[in-house]
Amino acid sequence: MSFHEFVQASRTDILHRWVELTLKTYPADAFPFFSAHHDQFANPVGETIKSGLTAVFDSLVDGADAEMLREKLDRVIRIRSVQNFSAAEAVGFVFGLKGLVRKALGRQADDASIHAELTAFDSRVDELGLIAFDIFMSCREQVYDIRAREEKARSAKLLDRARQIVELHATGQKITRDDITPLAEGGERQ
């Protein structure tokens, strides 16, 4: 049996273990929920990871190009990039696939006829890991850009309100608590 045939025959088991390995990177109390609920509306994170990893695995085994792998992996990494994961934690599950395939192969991993294909598969998983890291960094940059724009807009509003208070003071108008309170609370001046 060739490596490709073996992986196809072991697909269900390998995928199950890869999804489980990935879901276990979440807090311990989240894992039972993610693995037990199979409704995409009740469990969008768990179902996105399961369907995403299935698509990634099948594309990887079928020899898809880097752009197709990026497309399949994007949803999974996009979710993980907005969660409290470091880069290593967010993409590390990708590399776990190599060990799972080796474990499924057992002693066959040492077979000379399979070794070359296994080495090529390992290289593809490494490539997938680099793609995952690129996606993660791109998503994090987007998050930081959004936060920076929000902070800039908030600061501009505060400066505008401060200018309004200075103008009131310069004209000799009495400044009331109502003039200052919205400024402190981040609300609009009445």
Keywords:
mainly alpha, 8 helices, 2 domains
Summarize the structure in words.
With 190 residues, the protein is mainly α. The chain has 8 helices and no strands. The longest helix has 59 residues, at 112-170. It is elongated and about 90 Å long. The protein has 2 domains: 3-141; 148-185. The mean pLDDT is 85. The protein is 78% helix and 0% strand.
Topology:
Blueprint: H1 3-9, H2 11-23, H3 30-36, H4 44-61, H5 66-81, H6 87-105, H7 112-170, H8 177-185
Helix pairs in contact: 2-4, 2-6, 4-5, 5-7, 6-7
Indicate how many domains the architecture comprises. 2
Poorly predicted regions are none
Number of strands: 0
Main β sheet profile: none
Please identify the structural class as seen in this structure.
mainly alpha
Oligomer: single chain
Termini separation comes to: 77 Å
In short:
With 190 residues, the chain is mainly α. It has helices at 3-9, 11-23, 30-36, 44-61, 66-81, 87-105, 112-170, 177-185.
